[in-house]
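Deliverable D4.2, example record:
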Amino acid sequence: MIVDEVFHQGGHGTYELTRVHHTDGYVLRVRVCRDSYATQSTAVAEVLTPLFTWTTIASSPGGGWHRTTPTASPDATPLIPVADEVLQRARRILPVPPPFITPGR
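Output generated by the structure prediction step:
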């Protein structure tokens, strides 16, 4: 379930999407940053740890998806497939249930 979604548009060719998900007992944050240069674009999925820090679980460099996104966008639509793909990879990596959740809590 998506809890929060934020879209931000920066300078020419730069925009980003941040989503926070509560899924499979985890809090996952997915950030997709599209820069005017593919080498400066990235997508990452991070998990919130019991110590309230974010740890990267999966990532996708811009070279794999940058050319499929427009230079400018009024909304997050072009970044959603990238965010979904990185989220799905993170979910496949993480154990279910989380090792830090006590059963019955």
